[in-house]
């Protein structure tokens, strides 16, 4: 019998890639999504239940209807800068709504939860690369709300709740190589999609926030991880928990620090120059975030397959180009 996995936030960028990977591995992904930022047309690998995770009745009915065995929870609000301006939204949607969600899952007998956490739980690094033992000092309400949910999962598990894994992603990037799903946020704030849109002329020139960071070329350094590599880690994490693995938090990154300047140079090498300008730093941004993912590799047997930044950029750009072409042919 096919094992069904509930994917909260499965209509989003990373969630839809997770659903695709689950389906390819033989599972039935059941998306639970309120479509606030997700896209209905990204839900193509299993059924969609359109609701908030806060709706305990729908959650319980969905678990019963599909015989859900485990949950991957990617639902949430994701903009660091917005979280600084509107912290209530972030504590509400990344933390408060998870209380009725976890209660409903537990009552319905769900034994395992994998959760999308973030490198933002570390704040400004005191050591790079960042291991899970690094101090947890988020610089913004987004990171705080994610860390609060990790603590909720830990404390609830200690009291008999589901086992859990928090996967702390560094910078998710890239798109499916077959071009069926890709990165699209509304409003967009992520570097690669903004750079692709600037390059294609479908968005304004790229704004680079900060060229006075203590990094070699003074722009912020991030660890870009292909969304397909993130997706494969989720499948492994669910399988590990269902086999009785211990709960815990794991970094997911390539361990390669790439500055914004280096990302733009890679676009150039691919023949895709990106118009850009420099702006002051944004509140809440760290200077460099680079992962030590040794623990995830050991615990999950995970290995990223698409670490090359040019490969990541090419897949992202291809998807944005296909969106543009689809729009043009629809006119
Ligand atoms: N994109 C990154 O680089 C990155 C990095 C670290 C962590 N994350 C985390 O990964 C997760 C997915 O990010 P993404 O980039 O795919 O964002 P996304 O906005 O594309 O996906 C989030 C999805 O959650 C849904 N959602 C939001 N609130 C909901 C609610 N209350 N109930 C049901 N559905 C809800 C949205 O409709 C959307 O489909 C988020 O939790 C984010 O914090 C992302």
Tell me what you see in this structure.
The structure is a single chain. The protein is α/β, with parallel strands linked by helices. The protein folds into two domains: 4-172 and 225-252, Rossmann fold; 191-222 and 255-291 and 302-330, UDP-galactose 4-epimerase, domain 1 (Alpha-Beta Complex). It contains eleven helices and 14 strands. Strands 3-2-1-4-5-6-11 form a seven-stranded parallel β-sheet, with helices on both faces. Strands 12-9-14 form a three-stranded mixed β-sheet. β1 (4-8), α1 (13-24) and β2 form a beta-alpha-beta unit. α2 packs parallel to α5. The termini are far apart. The model has no long low-confidence stretch (mean pLDDT 96). Nicotinamide-adenine-dinucleotide binds at residues 8-9, 11-15, 33-38, 52-54, 74-76, 78, 93, 97, 116, 118, 169, 171-172, 185.
Calculate the terminal CA-CA distance, rounded to whole Å. Answer: 45 Å
Unique ligands: nicotinamide-adenine-dinucleotide
Biggest beta sheet attributes: 7 strands, parallel
> SSE order, as H and E?
EHEEHEHHHEHEEHEEEHEEHEEHH
Radius of gyration: 19 Å
Low-confidence stretches: none
Provide the number of structural domains: 2
Strand order of the largest sheet: 3-2-1-4-5-6-11
Tell me the total number of β-strands. 14
CATH class annotation of the largest domain = Alpha Beta
Fraction of residues in β-strands: 15-25%
Fraction of residues in H or I helices: 25-40%
Average pLDDT over all residues: 96
Q: In the CATH scheme, what's the topology name of the largest domain? A: Rossmann fold
What do we call the CATH homologous superfamily of the largest domain? Answer: NAD(P)-binding Rossmann-like Domain
């Amino acid at each position: 019998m096919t094992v069904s996995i509930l994917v909260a936030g499965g209509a989003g960028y990373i969630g839809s890639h997770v659903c695709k990977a689950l389906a390819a591995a033989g599972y039935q992904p059941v998306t639970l999504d309120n479509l606030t930022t997700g896209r209905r047309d990204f839900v193509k690998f299993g059924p969609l239940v359109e609701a908030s995770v806060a709706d305990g009745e729908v959650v319980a009915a969905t678990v019963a209807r599909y015989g859900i065995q485990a949950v991957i929870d990617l639902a949430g609000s994701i903009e660091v800068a917005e979280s600084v301006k509107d912290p209530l939204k972030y504590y509400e949607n990344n933390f408060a709504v998870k209380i009725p969600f976890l209660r409903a899952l537990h009552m319905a007998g769900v034994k395992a939860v994998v959760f999308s956490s973030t490198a933002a739980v570390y704040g400004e690094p005191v050591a790079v690369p960042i291991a899970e033992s690094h101090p947890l000092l988020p610089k913004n309400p987004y990171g705080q709300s994610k860390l609060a949910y990790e603590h909720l999962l830990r404390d609830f598990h200690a009291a008999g709740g589901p086992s859990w894994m928090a996967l702390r992603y560094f910078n998710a990037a890239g798109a499916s190589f077959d071009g069926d799903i890709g990165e699209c946020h509304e409003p967009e704030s992520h570097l690669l999609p903004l750079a692709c849109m600037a390059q294609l002329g479908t968005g304004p020139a790229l704004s680079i926030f900060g060229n006075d960071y203590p990094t070699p070329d003074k722009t912020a350094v991030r660890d870009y991880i292909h969304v397909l590599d993130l997706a494969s880690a989720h499948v492994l994490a669910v399988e590990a928990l269902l086999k009785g693995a211990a709960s815990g938090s794991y970094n997911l990154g390539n361990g390669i620090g790439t500055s914004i300047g280096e990302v733009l140079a890679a676009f150039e090498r691919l023949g895709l120059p990106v118009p850009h300008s420099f702006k002051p730093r944004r509140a809440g941004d760290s200077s460099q975030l680079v992962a030590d993912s040794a623990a995830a590799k050991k615990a999950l047997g995970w290995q990223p397959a698409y670490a090359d930044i040019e490969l990541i950029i090419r897949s992202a750009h291809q998807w944005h180009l296909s969106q543009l072409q689809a729009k043009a042919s629809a006119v």
